[in-house]
Structures
1.
Amino acid sequence: MTQAPLWDIFCKVVDNHGDIGVCWRLARQLAAEQPVRVRLWIDDLQALKTLWPAAELKDRQSLAGVDVCLWSAEFDADVRVADVVIEAFACHLPSTYIKSMAIKRDQGPAPQWFNLEYLSAETWVEGCHGLFSPHPLTGLKKAFFFPGFSFKTGGLIREKALLEVRDAFLKDPAIADQWLAQQGVHRQSGSLTISLFAYENPAIGSLLRAWQLSDFAIHCLVPEGRILTSINAALATQLKAGDQLQLGALQLLVLPFLHQDDYDRLLWSCDVNFVRGEDSFVRAHWAGKPMVWQIYPQDDDIHLVKLDAWLAQQTRISGPALSAAALTQAWNTQADCAAEWQQAITDQKRWQQQSLAWTKHLNLFDDLASQLVYFGQKSL
Amino acid sequence: MKTGQELRAGHVINIDGQPWLIQKAEISRSGRNTAVVKTKLKNLLNGSLTETPYKADDKFEDISLERKEVTYSYFADPVYVFVDTEYEQYELAADDLGDLLHYIEDGMEDICEAVFFDDRMISITPPNTVTREIVYSEPSVRGDTSGKVMKRARLSNGHEIQVSDFVNTGDKVVIDTRTGEYKSRAKD
């Protein structure tokens, strides 16, 4: 019997959990939904353990159907080359592995090689997506693959059953209420629930003040992370995972770093989601709830161009949501957000409708994993 | 070595042992301060063209190509023969002549720049301007002297260009080889 093709995903953890978050989801999805075997090479197992507590700090293990391997500095030259190789997020494959790929190519068939790039809504991405890049030393062809928000890109990570699972969770409000109660939130009619996952941002002070003075109760759930530093600075506190605080209308709860599946439940349960980077950002799209994105900051404020490109794409599909856009821009420029928050939340119903329209649009095209598989089959 | 972000139009890089001329290089910023360089490349051995992205930190071996001045000597079907200042002969097929083919004629004295890879002539570039005789053109009927009205005219090798209406058969004209456009009537 022929063995299913082997896929290797190489991931270097740069900082935070975006790179490993995306790679781990992709690996799990490929293993669960495609007739392939998946091996994930990762240089920081602790980062994976934070996302997936069942992970152990050992060189090789099987997790959720994925063969997880430590990518050490001394890469074993005898590792068998996979049929499909993904180098994720600007990492570079070990030189010994590339040599083995060239040998495999010479013996035929050549391994398929993808460079999986960062997510961007900019139009230049469409002009590069799917183009082949011959490796300077070996001539091995590598396809540049860009996740994105249009038919001309590789789409977004979305498990086959994700939206059905989400809908089942949301069908009966008691389910979300129960899940939130487990986190310490007992929401009442007319209250607002917010998830807050972000990098450090001094603008949080203006939001916390606005939420304290709100006319309705606000529950803000903060998964442990970098924004906690800014919260503690703004409130002169030393909050940590498990702590909670009541400040006027605001109930602030600090959650431990959440398992990926639980993070989805958090996004589904909340009325507004503050997300950051790439992984939580993509998941917030599938939640179909109003979101405020904090993009990864880059030199020369290039991230603001990327932010505007995303806002423009969203506006083209779901109509102008100027108040939400203004809030997102203020949040990303670390400006006082109180007025923008007030405007956005006053228009919450419309914001919610537009979020659903955007989600519906994104659901029209194939997910990233399926597109990778399809692209590989097509280019053979 | 060059990195992807250092690539510029006009550079020649080695990809899998072959020389590729960079015709265009556009850099776009990706995530986390990385970048993607989209290039238009021409293979200097077989002339094939491709659009290819690279990462900004991909590394390339630079190729320094030898260049020599040569002049056209004669046509030895199917190749064109050129000589350098030391009367060494080099051959190039019509497909590799590029735009120079439009201006090739017996007895031409234009000094061209030849590019060599592995001691083999792989391309040739004519001077920026060449002077050629018009062997046929319809006579001017409008009496235009401004030079704005254009008409077709034929060179001795059969190549046709647009010239000013006042240019006549037997005139010599200056042609910009980079654009293929007529520049002026040559002064005697």
2.
Amino acid sequence: MDTNKNSYTIIYSTVMVVVVAALLAFVSMTLKDRQQRNIDNETQKTILSSVNLVPDIETAADKSAYVQDQYNKYITPLVFNTKGEKVEGEAFKVNLSEQTKLIKAAEALEGEARAKALENVKLPLFQCKMDDGSIVNIIPVYGAGLWGPIWGYIALQSDNETIYGATFAHKGETPGLGAEIATTHFSKQFEGKKIYEDGVFTSVIIAKGGAKPDTVNEVDAISGGTITSRALETAIRSWVSLYSSFLGQNK
Amino acid sequence: MNKEIYKNPIFKSNPVTVLVLGICSSLAVTVKLEPACVMALSVIAVTGFSSFIISILRNTIPNRIRIIVQLVVVAMLVILVDQILKAFSYEVSKQLSVFVGLIITNCIVMGRIEAFALGNKPIPSLIDGLANGAGYGLVLVVLAFFRELIGSGTLFGHQIIPLSWYVKNGGFYENNGLFILPPMALILAGLLIWAQRSIQKDLIEK
Amino acid sequence: MQDLLNIFVKSIFIDNMVFAYFLGMCSFLAVSKSVKTATGLGIAVIFVLGVTLPINYLLNTYVLSPGSLSWLGPEYADIDLSFLSLIIFIAVIAAMVQLVEMIVEKFAPALYASLGIFLPLIAVNCAILGGSLFMQERGYSSVGEATVFGLGSGIGWFIAIVALAAIREKLAYSNVPAPLKGLGITFIITGLMGIAFMSFMGIQL
């Protein structure tokens, strides 16, 4: 057969494209659920580690089943709006990056328009019922770091103003500098800090040069990771502040 | 069957240290042994099967679109590997991130197809592809072994250097952080070539 | 604006394609024997990266990533074509390289004479596909950012290859142990250059 004819070349490439596309689409559809489960599992693990509820993760025989069990046992996902009202939706599926864009857009506005724009923001909240019966609320934070997104979860004790624990993660911060936010060494500092002082929202200050000893809301910044530290502080402030009415309501 | 097909690529004409093929993406994944092993297996699978498929098709491929057909076959295999890793080995696939995708442009894959698979029967092509992948994987694993052992004191994540040796526990030992950093992979690869060429003198460049 | 500058500087010095990710090493080692050819290939890489990244960015944002087809209508919002991205990216790169080659040949024959032979090489240069994959992985937020990242990465690659070629030209006069000659010493030099580039890591803008 003449393999150099135009018609042959065209038919050949068409058949090839169709076969390859069909095969890939089939594989992708078959594995989709499993892949999604892996990603969800990762998020669940991050949420749980902000309240230290995955202590046996290293020794568990089936890590993902362990995380899933712990998550189902302790966490109730909810979605709220900025007025503190519960809204429809799955907390788990809320795209934090999109919500952050909405928040950014709203923050550029003033007064009435701003409050109006913020109403559309979906605020996921993960309620964690601890073994002693107390409720810990876990709030996601998300923002742009120095080189890529940074995100994390902040857990608040039942008084809704003291931090129970926190975890942070990042996509591509500088190793050894900004990337240190993902270490427990850094996130441990947040435990016991207060985000409200006498009923006024103060958020957490990530202080360059070290936290002053007599304050209740300062943690040490990462030396050499100034931009990442500042970005994280902004992310925490803008996300947690939106939960103010919810946190006040539940007091 | 000719034994040289699978013996040569691993030692004597190793694609990385002798032919300078496909070092591109590989070195960045050699910080830890586990991703390096998975990467090695992925490359072996891709080189083997792409050579096999191309060899089956070799008499039907229209010459004008030869390179594109090869690229499509390789890309398809790489996507399959990537999808499977994401589904069954998520942790590792996160560490490998874009480097799985970069197997497509790994010269070793296209190199073997052009040099061997286009002119040989499917089974020898499969073996040639697998062996070249293995030779490549061997370099990855050797580099990762040293980088993880010296850089983190672990192998496959298990502590090898006794914890009591470390300075922070009152000992004398400290991990050499330099080995985790990217440049050390290149220097180690250079040393590896040195070692190989000291043994096989005929490879020395003039 | 500051973001763009950040990405630009970072992609040249800190996330250097060669020293931090070892991308494009094959051609990097093959053509780094003389400064002149290295310059030619370097310029071609900058050019192709600068052209393919915005195209792949648009494809990724409006066709490939999950939910990106929603501009066609709400019923398309659930489609996720991201598994096709590798194949599409490589096709775009191959097509762009071909196109660039034809345009350069037609309108700038002098440039083609000096650059032409490198262009086909570039289609399988890992640095080019790597650029597109990193762009997807890091989720840049606009075409501008993607373009700047592409140009920056290209310039970083250019600097690396020209510097290495210059060192290798001088190396001809040094007394390198025989088994280390050629490939071995080049690896080690690249590693040492990588260490030098790491001093840029602390840069913050």
3.
Amino acid sequence: MKIVASYNIKGGVGKTSTAVNLAALAAREGRRTLLWDLDPQGAASFLFRIRPRVKGGGKALLRRRTTVDAAIKGTDFDNLDLLPSDFSYRNMDLDLDAEKKPTRRLRSLLSPLADEYDLVFLDCPPGISLVSESVMHAADWLLVPLMPATLSLRTFDQLTAFVADFDGRRPRVLAFFSMVDRRKRLHREVVDGLTGTRADIATATIPALSAIEQMAEVRSPVTMSAPRSRAAQSYGALWADLQRRL
Amino acid sequence: MTRPHTAGEVSGRFVSTDPDDPELTAAIAALAPSFTILAGPHSAVRRTWIDTFDERLRRAGMVLVHATRDGETYLELTDADGHRLRVPAAAMTWPAFAPDLPAGPLRERLAAVIDIRALSVSAALRSRERQLRVLDDDGKTVARLIVDTPLGHQRHRPIASAPAAVLSVHAVRGYGAEAGRIATALTSTPGVEASRTSRRDDALAWTMAGAKPAHPLTNALTADMPAAEAVATVLDGFRRTLEANVPGLIADIDTEFLHDFRVAVRRARSTVKLTGHALSDDRAATLGEELKWLGDLTSPTRDLDVYLLGVPAMAQSLRSSPAADLEPFREHLAQRRDVEQRRLVRGVRSKRLRELLDQWRDIGDPLASPAHGKAALAPPITAATLARTSVRKSHRTVVKLGSQITAASPAEDLHTLRKRCKELRYLLEIFAPLHDKALHKQVLQVLKALQECLGEFQDSEVQADALRTFAGEMSSAGAAASATLLAMGELAAALHAEQQRARAAFDSTFAAFMQPRNQRSFDALLPSPEPAREPKPAREPKIARRRLESTRPRRADSSTDGAAGGTLLSLHTGGAA
């Protein structure tokens, strides 16, 4: 079982869209896939029409009063399950802090699922906190959507350096450019200047497309509702790149 | 992910008299107004249920289906936990072995269960299927309702014995409560009732496909049934097993048809030899002679099968020769086997076997016995008495022969002991339904260990001898390169070393078998009857007693142990095993 976290310190960069669409693609290929919506806003749960509620909230999950297994819901797609969001996840930092070895907690919660799933995607809330640190320790891969801007790159380098300082196992990091608008000169320059020059930046990019924004209306991953669309093809290329590395 | 057949998530299967009745969805909607039903298009589905002849998948709680749905062909494996694995499999034909399956997790899981057996079709069914999605008020699918209309082999013709439709409710994971409400709604719908069987079992029942292997050791044995009837019942079970394996043996589907056929022959032969006297006429003796012929007929092919199955491991074990050097040897074995298989099939199709089976069938029917009336006049001995006396006699023989074996004993003595051990094993298996379960398990375990040791000893010798014969044949035919002969020589040396190891292990294995605790368990397998009818306890052989005395507490001897065991244990009858 591989764990892939869709993560960035910044919000609104396409973390949820990435997690949802790559999870859907993996499941369509026959991989038994779980998506954990860790964001208290519950956007991924909403997209799959699953109520953002976990019995006992995040604290019960962390304390194992509610097992992960019991909280999982099946989506409408074969091979794809969801561990829903819960509004109480907003306090997950505090809840984790009350636990022993908080940064190892998420990985240990997921470990009993190793026989059941081939792949787990974590859709993370933005920010840098105990939750995100726990996510980094849980993940085998950190998938980082970047807006094509100089500051984004600087933040990404900070993240890479932070992860490199971990003792023991460290996740591998893969960034990709998200919400790319090629009509903008800066986007073109950043993407063209960096794509293919760094091994930790994927060549696939995700354009800024209304089809991706409309996922919240359709309430389905674009890779499923419009599998031939440009948006779906872009996610397909990103998934192919990640899959080669997994 | 849909996980049918998982506790708490299956909401049931139902049979309906009218699949297309729009009232069905209306009833669900009326009884569960918070749901919306979305009907999908009809699909044409052809399902073939696959299993080994001895149903290894069913026994492991697995279901393997080779299905074609709307032109897409796939293999779908559902394991005991309800997890499903599906892989495209357009090119599969049956029977097939594990290596013929598409590579991946599905093949790995199946291979671990089926081992060397072939997968064949056990049932096939066409159906017209429609999926109804049940949505909650968020538009989320909470369950799938599958309406399955079974059709015969001729398209669009319903099967007379099947219901008009089978409805199954598949809960989406985490939505068990919702699916439960749908199931409740269905049960309240006129013309719909709950089904207690699985889709596979229904397919088997409706199509009558796939001959089932008969259970050789019937649980119908009871302690107080007449011994003659018990023996007849047991022999009849072996005959049914043997006959069930004939088509697979002739079609040469896998090696285990012949193996099971042979086991049935050997078991029947031992039954005739050790308990045939209970039949009160001499037909058993004639059957015994014919069974020997049948056993001999099957030996050459089986021996070659064992060799061929062992070639990959033999090749792996070579240290001084490359594995490829054994290839000409494998080819030689395969050619010999083809010849022997043809001979075997001629024998199995022969008039002599048909007559043997007729005779066997007569014996299996106790009422057909010419001595039936005569036997009825005298009080017949019971199955329990027969079990007790025959197991004790056979056990005493094993103890006697084993105790006589010394470092100087010839190999032949160990071979004889092995045969007697096999007979004891068969008797234990035959009378298992009458035995105390725990003691039966215990004695079987120690006997198995002894049999394995003796088996290794003899098999190594026989195989080494056969290797020399094969090497001679290959040399004469000019089919043996020196490299192959060298590799075969290395195998012979390894077999010799194995035989020495088994010989060295015999003393300790036999000592474990002879432990007082185990010997007491043999005596106590069945409780003794009332004192008046108890046959006089036979004396233990002197040598055996000497051995027992050296390890047994002084307060008891073997006969009192037996009696004590008998008074303490209750009799288990009618399918305890």
4.
Amino acid sequence: MSSPYVFIKNVSKTQYSFLTNSGVIYRIAFSEIPDLFSEYPLFANNVYEFIIALDKSFKDFQPAFDDNIGITIAEIVKDFMDDRDKVIVYFCDVKDRKHKARNRKFTSWFTRFNDNFVNYTIQIKDFEVELTYYNTLIVKSENPCKVQIFEAFETIVNGFEDKYSLLMPLRKLSLMVDTNLKTSFFFYKFIKNSIVSIPSAKSFNLGTCASPNLKLFEKRVFVETVHWIFSAFLANNFSKCASLS
Amino acid sequence: MKILEKVDKNDVQVRSVLFGRTMQKRLQKQIEKVQKDTSFDTLIAELRLKSNE
């Protein structure tokens, strides 16, 4: 099937763009994400995150239904996947809570246009914010490592490997501080929301953490968390952990 | 709060949720980056030229 819309790509085939009949410009990117499978050097460097964005001039624009968009995007994916070893991951954006519709659309495109690929979607249910994160992997059928790739994906997405510190130094800090995940989760949340910086353990300033907008429950947890931090500090663990920040 | 109540029993589930949240944050940054990336401008200019032909 040929692409209904003409698309343009850069030399390295990591950026694509096309213009629809209604004048909307799409930007498609395949961004390297070696950190995701860093424990799996066999294929870590072949993994790309697939990103679809509207051109900045159409930010927050709601494009009308256009069947040709799906066909064009499928053709772009096929063009990018010129090497049997390439792997694509994509995460359905939850920002506007249309992630389920996005997942349905991507799945239907895959079913309709697939000729030589295998996909695997893993859902993560986040009860706290009532969201489901759809995480999908696409490999070529002839990829010799596909079984290992799927297993690694399961391991990472299902939380059997510590990947939630990915590109998040503060989160790593909170986890290093605490082996109790409940406390560390709140610690991370409060630091992220409230703190300006942690120059060092000794000059750690409670005032920078305290937010006047905290709800009563959060205040209680905050106090418990701070109590724990100081206990850890007294136990001579905190200075070691804070140095990682 | 269900997740947090289970934290001590099942940290794998928490890790999974945190992974999901992390990747969402990363995705937002990536979308912004793609929208601001000026290297796309050359492609788009070329695209406009082609569409006017």
